Amino acid sequence: MYLGERANWFGGSNTAQVYSSLADAILNERDADKELAIQHLNTACEMFNDCFERQQAIYASYTALPTDEEEIDTESGGVSLSEAPEVMANVDEDEGYAVIQASITPSTILDTLLELLSTLSVLLPIHPSPQPLIHTVESLLFSKLAPLSTSLPDRQTDCILTAAITKCAIAESLFRTSSPDPNAWEAAISASFNPTEWSFSASADALCAKSDAHVSLASTIPELAWKHYAFASQALGEAAKLEPTKARIYLARGDMELVRSRIECAARTEQVRELLRKNAGVFYRGAMRLEDAEVKKEGEVKEAALRFENGEVAALTGLLDQESREILEEAVEEEVFEAEILEKIITDEGV
Q: Are strands 97-102 and 87-92 parallel, antiparallel or unpaired?
């Protein structure tokens, strides 16, 4: 069976997701090849954009107003466009093949646009010259996303959250390339997660996104690190109340407390440092209690590494396999643990 050109948008979207995933994997590596990641993200954006434009064109063909002669008589058994089936097959008897066309709806168009904006949000902060891209993104936000959000009230949270993440990415990219003004970046985060404009605090995903935005700023501007890591930690705490069984939130809270414990600032006394480290252990153990094998392993390794740092030299015995080392290496990259911990594990007596 032949799949016609009008169905190609689906395969293109899948391929774009593959390129986006490849870029994410590269960026998560210790020595990330940012140029290669940018190439993959550019390719993904082009494919998502092509799918988006094709979907809009196909949907426009559905909704074109018929002339008087072409109007469908629904009372006599005709089918209106609003009742079009999810999948349509047009059979060409002469050629002997069928063209399968997946029905396009505003919701499927929105899905593609959200994927495109999410990919652009990853690309913007690492792009060396993001200004032309920013104009494109802002146009998508105002001329494409806003109308779709209005027409799909049940998807408004998805739309507003994606817009918030994208606006924070724009602010970060400007700070890194042309306008190193921390106040502008801070203002963008506050405006994007403004409780008077949308109820982001009712969504765990939105709270985690808010936390990520503060972490990005905190990890970039040392003098603002303490304040914004505290904001990030607060957002994760609120998310945990909404999603008490989401193990990854507990892991993230444990990481956040350890990162905060290592910041040198007037607000961080030894008493505060010890409290943060104690909290981290509680959160790691909380993650371990939830039924998620991958998270349980990571929580186990990090909780043991914390006890190792506290002087329990045998804490990591039996946890020195390749997976454990990779977890610790990534944690060191994220400044959750001191860089020396891997060397100490190798050389410390009894481990």
A: antiparallel
CA-CA-CA-CA torsion sign (124, 125, 128, 131): positive
Question: If 0-12 CB within 10 Å is exposed, 13-18 middle and 19+ buried, where does residue 227 land?
Answer: middle
pLDDT of residue 119 exceeding 50, the answer is: yes
Residue 337: φ, ψ to 5°: -125, 160
Mean pLDDT, rounded, for 19-29: 93
Q: How far apart are CA 347 and CA 351, in angstroms?
A: 8
Note whether 53 and 144 are within 8 A (CB). Answer: no
**What percentage of the chain carries pLDDT values higher than 70?**
83
Overall size of the chain counted in residues: 351
- The pLDDT of residue 265 is above 50: yes
Dihedral of CA atoms 28, 33, 34, 36 in degrees, nearest 10, equals -110
What mean pLDDT is predicted for residues 100-120?
Answer: 90
Q: Phi/psi class of residue 299: alpha, beta or left (left: φ > 0; alpha: ψ in -120 to 50)?
A: alpha
- Torsion angle in degrees (nearest 10) through CA of 102, 103, 109, 115: -30
- What does the block give as tokens for 43? 């390719």
Please state, in angstroms and rounded to a whole number, the distance separating the CA atoms of residues 312 and 246: 29
Q: What pLDDT digit, counting tens, does each position of 156-205 carry?
A: 999 999 999 999 999 999 999 998 999 999 999 999 999 998 999 999 99
**Prediction pTM value:** 0.85
Given a contact cutoff of 8 angstroms between Cβ atoms, the answer to whether 138 and 106 are in contact is no
- Using DSSP's 3-state secondary structure scheme, residue 155 falls into helix
Residue with tokens 């910041």: 263
- Does pLDDT of 95 surpass 70? no
Q: Buried (b) or exposed (e) across 229-243, using 16+ Cβ within 10 A?
A: bbbbbebbebbbebb
CB 159 within 8 A of CB 148: yes
Q: Tell me what the mean pLDDT of segment 54-70 comes to.
A: 75
Question: Tokens 């507990």 belong to which residue?
Answer: 250
